[in-house]
């Protein structure tokens, strides 16, 4: 399915338990991220889970967006301008990322504090936590576990 302005306009919107105004684009079999500008930067959270998205791109400037959920997609690349376009995004949830180099562009997301990469093949890479903390030193939570001082020391030693 194409992500059109009509799909965005008729999608379910709600306030989540964190009191974030949310746009539900879950399970629509969207293949390409397009026309997201129709959301007019009015959402705190966008859920694009359970789609067929391969490339995280074409995200317009969303100053308000705090959380982006992209579970159960086919993501293999992340646009280099993601950080500039979502400068206040503090929480990201991804799955199916196979290599750390595939999401190296996340390092430009300076405000990111919570990152979930649970059930990603990259979790089995050597020094996974340390490498992620080195890439994103501002993280406070990784895979729903607090980033410890030990994690930070291991990252510094890489």
TrEMBL record:
GO terms for MF: U2 snRNA binding
Source lineage: Eukaryota, Sar, Stramenopiles, Bigyra, Opalozoa
Keywords of the record: Leucine-rich repeat, Nucleus, Repeat
Species the sequence originates in: Blastocystis hominis
Main location: nucleus
Protein name listed in UniProt: U2A'/phosphoprotein 32 family A C-terminal domain-containing protein
UniProt keyword Transcription present: no
GO BP: mRNA splicing, via spliceosome
Subcellular location: Nucleus
Keyword Repeat found: yes
Pfam families named among the record's database cross-references: LRR_9
Protein family (similarity comment): Belongs to the U2 small nuclear ribonucleoprotein A family.
Gene Ontology cellular component terms for the protein in this record: nucleus
InterPro entries recorded: LRR_dom_sf (IPR032675), RU2A (IPR044640)
